[in-house]
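ABC transporter ATP-binding protein (Variovorax defluvii), 227 aa
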Amino acid sequence: SALVRLNNVSKRFANGTLALQGMSLDCGEHDFISFLGPSGCGKSTALRLIAGLTRPSSGELAWSGAASRGAERDRELGFVFQEPTLMPWARVFDNVWLPLKLSGVSREAAAPVVKDALEMVGLSRFAEVYPRELSGGMKMRVSIARALVTRPRLLLMDEPFAALDEMTRIKLNNDLLSIWREHRFSIIFVTHSVYESVYLSNRIVVMAPRPGRVIEEIRIDEPYPRG
Ligand code: ADP
Ligand code: ADP
């Protein structure tokens, strides 16, 4: 069953820019979808529409289950941006606790769940550390743990590793694949890297700019030898 479904969705901004034209997509359980294309092809716009951060100008967009009720969407969707956007004054633990804290979960009650999330990204030993003490790759891991701490069914990632050096990026790609395989949530991953899209995803949505649109979708049935 589809977690989120876009039917002929377009987005035109107030200044007249047609950022996305007629996009249709079904994201199912345990999908790993990448949006692949050059700058300006509407990848971020499509992701922001799916996140509910902006509304379609036309067409339909529907979430299934709890996410269709606005208040619960925050728990059903995790979001990772290119910038880790951690709170510099808070320890790693408290950064990861944040989404639970915002939905009323105490620090004590959250502790085992936060621990699990940190373990998932290999940062168990860094719970009491401040973000400034971490490398770029580790900050990104904290950001992933924070996005997964509510156990969302869908993780949205907007060029998450683009600012990292290549070795760190390769390591994070491998670890993200392992986490996805083990925990069976779905991922929509925005990238302009052909390498990343082929290596990571089982469905590649290829997009082009002016106006932003989908050119084709490639399904990878035989998994590329990976991990
Ligand atoms: P990508 O993520 O593929 O680089 P975007 O979705 O960011 O593409 O942008 C698609 C197009 O829409 C671009 O031409 C961009 O400049 C334009 N755009 C994005 N956001 C806005 C906005 N808030 N207002 C006007 N135009 C926008
Ligand atoms: P990305 O790094 O994903 O390509 P951008 O740097 O293009 O994103 O855009 C960053 C932010 O600025 C986004 O929130 C986007 O909506 C907004 N934006 C992008 N292009 C325009 C534009 N032409 N007019 C207004 N806002 C824009």
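The two ends are 27 Å apart (CA to CA). The beta strands are 2-12, 18-28, 32-36, 58-63, 77-80, 154-158, 186-191, 203-208, 213-219. ok done for today
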